[in-house]
Amino acid sequence: MASKQGESKGSAPGKNMLWGGRFTGGLDPLMVAYNESIYYDRAFYAQDIAGSIAWARANKNRGILTSDEFSAIEKGFAQVREEWATNTFEIKPGVDEDIHTANERRLGEIIGTGIAGKLHTGRSRNEQIATDMRLWLHEELRKIEGHLANLLKVVAARAEQEIEHVMPGYTHLQRAQPIRWSHWMLSYGLAFATDLQRLREVVKRVNRSPLGCGALAGNPFDIDRDAMAKELGFDELIYNSMAGVADRDFVVETMQWGSTLMLHMSRWAEDLIVYSSAEFGFVKLADAYSTGSSLMPQKKNPDSLELLRGKSGRAFGHMAGLMMTIKGIPSTYNKDLQESVEPLLDHVKTVGDSIQIATGVLSTLVIQPDKMLAALTPDMLATDLADYLVRKGVPFRETHHISGQVVALAEKEKTPMDQLTFEQLQSVDKRFDKDIEETFDYQKSVEMRSAKGGTSKSSVEEQVKVLKKMLEGQ
Ligand code: ARG
């Protein structure tokens, strides 16, 4: 290609680069660093090589490469892959702009540029990066699916084992009604199980192949996209080449998914932080997931939970940031899209690590059932008192008022509600019978809530079953 007149300024870093032909002036060194992505997209080295081999094979089948040339490429890439795997790949600063150029440069050194120079026929890095990211993400999401399944198994096992223990349930962080500890665990467990269902949906859309889309308009050598997709383990193709190179919905959707999961995780962590404080004391965190204070020797801090809560903000930030990055860019590939890589890498690591930490925390947590019991107070049975009269035929609006009067009386007498005499109760309403005593029983209170989804033993057991089914993908 003809160079522009008067632009040649001697040594030009652009000269050694893949697209260097048109560029005769040197790049600002800061621009080189600003532009390069090799230091993070190297994470995709294996996917990039697999994609290149599939590409070469498909080109061999179209007569663009001979069988010998294909074999040389395949063999050369085996060495490149080995170098990355053993950390001996030498990145050429200022030359290896990204993982695609680095791999091709090294291939040329190993097998000669005569053959390596044919590899990129009809191909664009635009389709390469989209392919690499999707392949990588598909693998990572499968791992995350496994981590999430492990967390759910711990929830199910604990919920079954510790079903007897009753604790206060809260609204507005005020004591509300007695619940089973297992019911609390399952309240988050089922949210996480729903996240698992969502994840399985997201994975399907991640696993579509953009390879063969070209720079934007498609491939001019009738490359067999289906064969390449099959070789790489994709389920489907992306059917519009312009969309194929531009689409980062799979990144956005993954991060929206991860943000939702981390939102659940953050609230779960917040509950446990509160429950592990001395004032509550319902749970004790294992040493493995706590740290001490450098100043106060008595302290044991729930750092793991605080980090889970804190990292949820970071996960959400990556999602919001990328959506802002993408929203204004014109059709097909623009370099802005390179900004989808780092947030994705960090998001996936954050979410994957967080799920494993949460699993560690939950599986080593020690509960203090006596503290849970001690935190229950008779006034938490005020609704049960109202329900007692409902069963005697009194309208609920009336019973709610009567029960409120009993609470007020107990407060006035400075006596717990369950210690009021039968006469005192009757002074509030004549319809209280002797059997009212049975109402002042936390176990009875939870057992009364036996409709599906409630806190009775049978309802909680059913929730465990539901969770297990969701785990199996039913
Ligand atoms: N490193 C680039 C990215 O991550 C690869 C695609 C480059 N394409 C281009 N037309 N400059 O987005």
TrEMBL record:
Argininosuccinate lyase C-terminal domain mapped to chain residues: 380-447
Gene giving rise to this polypeptide: ARG4
Highest classification ranks of the organism: Eukaryota, Fungi, Dikarya, Ascomycota, Pezizomycotina
PANTHER family: ARGININOSUCCINATE LYASE (PTHR43814:SF1)
Family: Belongs to the lyase 1 family. Argininosuccinate lyase subfamily.
UniProt organism field: Coniosporium apollinis
Keywords in alphabetical order: Lyase
Record flagged with keyword Lyase: yes
Name the UniProt record assigns to this protein: Arginosuccinase
Positions of the Fumarate lyase N-terminal domain: 21-317
Source taxon at top rank: Eukaryota
Molecular function in Gene Ontology: argininosuccinate lyase activity
